[in-house]
Write a structure and sequence with these properties.
The chain is an alpha/beta fold. It has 16 helices and 13 strands. It folds into 2 domains: 4-251 and 366-429, Rossmann fold (3-Layer(aba) Sandwich), CATH 3.40.50; 255-362, Dihydrodipicolinate Reductase, domain 2 (2-Layer Sandwich).
Length: 442
């Protein structure tokens, strides 16, 4: 395969052949994603919410007739008609059955996609109830050690690639939130981590086993949950050694999406924030899992860090030093996948006069997550073909608790994230970066 030279510093392999997308956790998010791509390919739906498919990037100066081609015209991304889908789940339902059970998409749409969805069946999952106490399943791998489980996953990956005649693979974690785990000694080096796999160290959760298997084989990996997963030194170092792009963590969907849009605007106008109370109700599998305090803590840590980074209270003590931030998630089965995110924001303006903002976001969790899965898969594959490895900070745009290199602060402001994403695409495509230094440069 020959590389395409796009500028003086980077060359990109063409997006030829079939791309396989592997999904640990084939429930509501995964089935909504797969069904959506199939619907788009049939011409019965639009990929709304997907930047890789519908987004445009300005190239060149800001003129009265700016050049804003589609992203697919700027960089060589994979065609949606040449994808293969696979993955693992603790339930053996095929993707049509799983999608019906998830009750996210209209049954009339699913029936139009029944044939291809029914052909996609999950492989047995690596699962341990100790990490997700609210779930139980029988479609689970059995092995004496976690290293044996990792090798079983690698065998699955190799077989899937051969059976589906894929040229390349990516993996996107769509599984549940695991119990809260802090980084420990077993996570520091790959030697310690592999020793821990052999000795069944309890600090190695199932999501880390999937991440290890993917990265070890050079398969780009994204983490869509707040689990540590690939966000540990051992796997970051391994990703560099195997030249594998990685990204994490936690899909930025409902309430946190609103925070990363609104908070930068409040800060830009130097408006004080005294308190931000957030509560969620949802009734899907994610809501059930987060009903357990140990699992909720993992999600809470992910959500709470957003405003702290955006507001920078140490630099703006008069505006944000004492702001109070509370997050709640409530499992409410009747709501299903239709999550409600409610925010009450107490702010102060000129002369410290108080005001309030209230948001009631009646969102659909999996509908917001599905295009994120697509874009992460498409852009991680692009990163791999462009020779980029390790943490892909430019994909922070999609993530609630973005992974950043050691010693570097993660960025949560969605507008800064978008600027970084667009400039990275310009760089890969061989175009000048946009930096707004003056009319001769912007």
């Amino acid at each position: 395969m020959s590389k395409q030279q796009v500028n003086n510093s980077i060359s990109v392999d063409p997006a030829s052949g079939k791309l396989g997308i592997l999904l640990p956790g084939m429930g509501a998010v995964a089935t909504t994603f797969i069904a959506g791509v199939l619907a788009v390919n049939k011409g019965i739906a639009q990929p709304i919410g997907s930047l890789s498919q519908m987004g445009r990037v300005r190239i060149g100066k800001r003129t009265t007739k700016p050049n804003k081609p589609l992203i697919s015209e700027v960089v060589p991304i994979q065609n949606l008609k040449n994808l293969a889908f696979g993955g693992w789940d603790i339930f053996k339902d095929n993707m049509y059955e799983a999608a019906v059970h998830a009750n996210v998409l209209d049954i009339n749409l699913l029936n139009k996609l029944k044939a291809p969805l029914s052909k996609i069946t999950p492989m047995k999952a690596v699962f341990d109830k100790n990490y997700v106490k609210k779930l139980s399943g029988t479609h689970v791998k059995k092995s004496k050690t976690k290293m044996a489980l990792a090798k079983a996953l690698m065998a699955d990956i190799k077989k899937f690639k051969t059976d589906n005649k894929c040229s390349r693979l990516v993996m996107v974690w769509c599984g549940s939130t695991e119990i809260y785990i802090e980084e420990g000694k077993v996570h520091k080096t790959i030697e310690a981590f592999e020793k821990g796999l052999k000795e069944n160290d309890p600090q190695i959760a199932p999501s880390m086993i999937y991440a290890y298997a993917a990265i070890k084989m050079g398969v780009p990996y994204a983490n869509g949950a707040p689990n540590l997963s690939c966000d540990i030194p051992a796997l970051v170092d391994l990703a560099k050694k195997t030249q594998t792009p990685i990204a994490g963590k936690d899909f930025k969907t409902g309430q946190t999406l609103m925070k990363t849009i609104l908070a930068p605007g409040l800060k830009a106008r130097a408006l004080a924030v005294n308190g931000w109370f957030s509560t969620n109700i949802l009734g899907n599998r994610d809501g059930e899992v987060l009903d357990d305090p140990d699992n909720f803590k993992t999600k809470e840590v992910s959500k709470l860090g957003v405003l702290e980074e955006i507001f920078e209270p140490d630099l703006y003590p008069e505006l944000y030093k004492d702001f109070y931030h509370k997050v709640r998630i409530n499992y409410y089965p009747p709501r299903g996948d239709n999550k409600e995110g409610w925010d009450n924001i107490d702010i102060s303006g000129w002369l410290n006069y108080p005001m309030q903002i209230k948001i009631d976001f009646l969102c659909r969790d999996s509908i917001l997550a599905a295009p994120i899965v697509l874009d992460l898969a498409i852009f991680l594959d692009l990163s791999k073909r462009a020779g980029m490895s390790g943490i892909q900070e430019w994909l922070s745009f999609y993530l609630k608790s973005p992974q950043a290199p050691k010693g570097r602060q993660a960025i949560h402001d969605i507008f800064k994230q978008l600027h970084k994403l667009e400039n990275t695409l310009r760089y890969i495509g061989g175009h000048d970066l946009i930096h707004h230094l003056g009319q001769d440069y912007e």
